[in-house]
Every structure is written in C-alpha cells, then in structure tokens.
Amino acid sequence: MRYLERERELLDHYLPGLDAALAARPLAALERPGGEALTAFRAAGGPGLLVPAEHGGKGADLLSAVRVQRAVGSRSPSLAVATTMHHFSVASLVETAAVNDGPEWLLLSAIAQDRLLLASGFAEGRTGQGILSPSLTARVDGDKVWLSGSKKPCSLARSMDLLTASVVLPDPDGSPRMAVALVPADSPGVSVRPFWDSPVLAGAESEEVVLEDVEVPSDLVVRTDVTADGRLDRLQTAGFVWFETLMTASYLGAASALVERLLSAPKAGTAARAEAATVLHGAVLALDGLARTAGTPDENVLADALVCRYAAQRAIDQVADLCVEALGGMAFISSGDVAYLNSACRALAFHPPSRNRMAGALADHFTGHPLHIS
Fold first, then answer.
1. What Pfam families does the database record attribute to this sequence (predicted)?
2. Domain 119-223 grouped into CATH 2.40.110.10
3. pLDDT by residue (tens digit) across 38-91?
C-alpha cells in the first residue's frame, strides 16, 4: 500500500472529488487567504461529514473522520485546521441533539443540505485563559440574549455561516451556568477584522470576529452542565475528544506531507526515510486506536485523547527535523513547500489545552482524581 493511500481513498468515499481538487492546486495557492480549498470543501459536501445520514449528512464516525482529516491535512494544512473547528462544533450539536428535544436536528439537516460552515468562538488562543472561559459577555433580558466581545483568532471568520460561542448565563436561582450560543454570521452587529499576519495557515481565515450587542434567538442558545470548578459535562467531554483527535489528525496530515516528499526522494537515504515514516506512523496508529475504541466519551477517553495529542506533538517535531535535514538544502531552496510544512505541522502545540497547562491535571487524573480542563 502506498503512503496515505488508505486515507485518501476514504476521503474520496466521503467527499468525492475533494482530494483530486486539492491535489490539482499548488500548496501555496491552497494556503493563502481566499484560496480555493474551502470552496472545494463545500462543493464536496464537507460541512455534512459528521451529520448523521438520516439527517442528510455523511454519517462519518470518529475513526473515519480522523483519517479524512489526515488526508485533508496532507493536501492543505489550512483547510484541515479550519474544518476541524467546524467538525468540532457539529459533533457538539450531534451530542446535544441526542439528549435534548430542541431544534438541533433541524439545524444539523440545514448544515448538511445547505453546506453551512460553523466557526468556533470558544476561548482558544487567549494566553493564560482556559478554553472553557467565555470570550464573549452576555446581556440577558427575560428569554432574550445579547452578546458582545470578540474572538481572535477565529478560523473560518470570512466564510462562516454560523458562529458557535461559549457564554455564561444565569440559572433561575441566579447562579452562573455555561451555555453555547449559535450566532448567524449575517446578524446585525457581527463584523470581521484582520488579525492573522503570519503566512503560515493563512488559508484557515483566522481573523478577529467582533460582536457588538448581537441578539441571539432563544432557540439557538443551548445550556450545558459545566460547573464552576471546570468539571466537564457529557457535551463538553465529547466535544473536547472530537477536537483533540481531529486537530491532532490534521497536523499529523501536514507532517505526513513532509514524509511523503521524503519517501519520494531515494537520495535522502533509506535509514532517514524509514525512521521518519515509522515514527509518524506510530503516532497515527495510536490516534486510530483511540478513535476506534472511544465509544461514549468520558474523562478517561479525554485523557487518552490528550496523551495521543501530546505524543503526536513530539513525534511531529522529531519527524519534521528528520525530513528537513534528509531532504537537504536544495529541496528547501527550490520550493517553499518544505519550509512551509515544517512550520505548519508544528502549530499543534499552539492549540489548547497546552501541554504545560494540563501537566498537573493529567498527573492528578492518573492518580485517581477527576480530570479538570484549564
């Protein structure tokens, strides 16, 4: 079997034509702002990848989604990173719909049929702040909710149809409770400002989304059971498992693009080619194993997902160093692809929760304490 053949065949099964469309374009063209990758993703039905088949979607399970994201990341890291945020939001909606009697199924059907893209307004990217901490403030008057604030960076900022955001709302007894709001991108008061100055992953459209007293329909506000001490409810736990596994798969895909180039360069030497492919494939197998056995996500599954993610970070750093050195100066000089992929694949370390922030929580978890996300 050729390298990445399994993943690309699965991508073609779920999203016909997407791999061919991406392969036909130079990497630089796919990674720039306003590139053609997101257009191709929509055209292939990508927004409905995780929507159950009975609601018009592709019905991919976690293992299939992990392999699809690796294939996408090998062609366009920006597309993989951006669409992971969409898939994370969709997976959370699917989990919510399974236990609620609200309008989530109607929304999921619309996502699949109308090919809507969801951006994520969670607190990702704010140094020193936990991912569960809301980046927006809410004003409540009866059943009406207005949101203000900004999210930066926010992937899919210019292509999104809906923004999903965490907010704190009062319970009937006045105690604070986390909720998830879905904000239509064309709502009055929603705007996008430039933020991402780096050329790396620029195609993910990670700009600043600003909300100025934006009214959110009550049926687009979903309350959760997240407690004040950071303990996770079922919805949040499932969402984090999907986020960590799919984001890890996306960056493993970017690193796989480097390994693929190395395997195609016999002059690089057999030992280097075998070592790079073996190290990265070990991380891939660990992530596949997690996805295959995840079942109903709980704290133990989430801890396993974090372990896979942090192990993948180390593998990616090792493999990127191997590939750049083995491919040599001429490969680095003659094309920007090697330098670009070398930078892009390492950005997994920037996504929350960071390895340092979770060190104490994981150590406590492995000694029998509840898992906290910070």
1. Acyl-CoA_dh_M (PF02770)
2. yes
3. 999 999 999 999 999 999 999 999 999 999 999 999 999 999 999 999 999 999
Rg for the chain, CA atoms, rounded: 20
pLDDT digits (tens, 9 = 90+) for 251-276: 999 999 999 999 999 888 999 999 99
Rounded Cα distance, 358 and 374, in Å:
7
Residue 282 contacts residue 315 (beta carbons within 8 Å): yes
Q: Answer yes or no: CATH 3.30.428.10 is held by domain 234-366.
A: no
pLDDT tens column, 148-161:
999 999 999 999 99
C-alpha span between 291 and 245 (Å, rounded) = 8
Q: Which CATH number fits domain 5-117: 1.10.540.10, 3.40.50.150, 1.10.10.10, 1.10.3210.10?
A: 1.10.540.10
Q: Backbone phi, then psi, for 312, in 5-degree steps?
A: -65, -40
The region that residue 201 occupies, defined by phi over 0 for left and psi between -120 and 50 for alpha, beta otherwise, is: left
Which residues are CB-neighbours of 289 under 8 A, at least 6 positions away?
none
Which residues are registered as beta bridge partners of 5? none
> CA angle 257-262-268, nearest 5°?
165
Domain 119-223 and domain 234-366 have a common topology: no
Distances 53 to 105, 110, 132, 161 between C-alpha atoms, Å: 12, 13, 30, 21
Which letter does DSSP use for residue 297 in this model?
A: -
Q: Where are the beta strands (DSSP E) in 217-358?
A: 221-223
Instruction: Give the Cα separation of 261 and 91 in Å (integer).
Output: 33
